[in-house]
Amino acid sequence: MSRAANPGPRNVIDSAMTDPSQEPAPNPTPVKELVVVNATGRQASSVVRVASAVGYKVRAQLRSLKKDLQLSAELKLLPNVTLLEGSLDDQAFVDTLFVGAQYAFVNTTPYAWTDEVATGKSLALAAHKAGIRHYIFSSLTDHSTHDPPQDPLPLWATKFTVEQYIRQLGLPATFVYVGSYHNNFSSRPYPLWQLTPRADGGFVWKAPFPPDYPIPFVDTEHDLGAAVIQIFKDGVQRWGGQRIPLAFEVLTPLQVCSAFSRALGRPVNYQPHPLEIHIPIPPGYRDQLEGIVKVLCEQRAPYFRPEMEDSATTISRALWPGWRGMEEYAREVWPIEEKSNGASWIASGVATPASEMDGEN
Predict the structure, then answer these.
(1) CA distance 127 to 34
(2) Distance, CA of 279 to CA of 146 (rounded, Å)
(3) For the chain, how far is it from start to end, CA to CA, in angstroms?
(4) Which residues does 344 contact at the CB level (< 8 Å), separation at least 6?
(5) Which end of the chain is less congested by CB atoms within 10 angstroms, N or C?
(6) Which residue ranges does the record annotate as region Disordered (predicted)?
């Protein structure tokens, strides 16, 4: 029996594999949509910047576009960021704020224009109804719930009340407890945090903290957003229902002054001193400041909840290894912030490179 003729090699390249018009459409990556409340705040703006950079679609709520024109303009230019101007006292606005989103970062404000507990509960309920998959709320402790109980700090206890409500709702949530901001420090007369210039070119920090009191610190602009986005990435499977302390260093006042002194090349000294208030402050803030003196400074209560104190820096640094410490902040950032605020001491020269200070790079 004769063999059939060999047909030769088979053409294994289908035309659909080489003709772009015949290629199947790629499966699109689902868009991650994030709502950020009070977007021009220190915490929230950091979250907006990082979320935009890594591909989230961001709805950034703010009370007024006119309140901080420079920051609003910056956020508006970021990719995939939409600014939503609206009051959190407007229930109709709040009811639609989270619809269609999967994630939310919320840091409410405690001052006179809003009832923080009512606002916090309203936001949480709206997010719950909208089906938010992961809700990160910036909370703080209520010292009256510690063992033994101590006096609550009024502007922290309200956040803890909202946290308890979120838990009762069953909203998939994580609670971040944020340390003291690096940029609390200023040569301007802000209560607790003023670094007062001296005639010899140095500074003195006068505050009621005991010299060895451990204060947790975070560079909000540089580090908070990155840590929060990592929490979203890890998901509620990892962090659901948990309290996460966000502080990358815990420093005493003496250690803070040493860091500033090394960074600036100037003497910076700490002087324990009663609380001084030389500027107008928002209603209710005096009670908060006096509470800090009594509870943290005199009674030496922990900044975070007692069970969180030992793990603060370990958790934060695992979430975001690229954190910026106090000394680096004081060397690279604080002089620039001071210059932008018109600080007179800048004219006498600093350790920061002149090219940076003059804006040449």
Answers:
(1) 11
(2) 33
(3) 86
(4) 197
(5) N
(6) 1-29
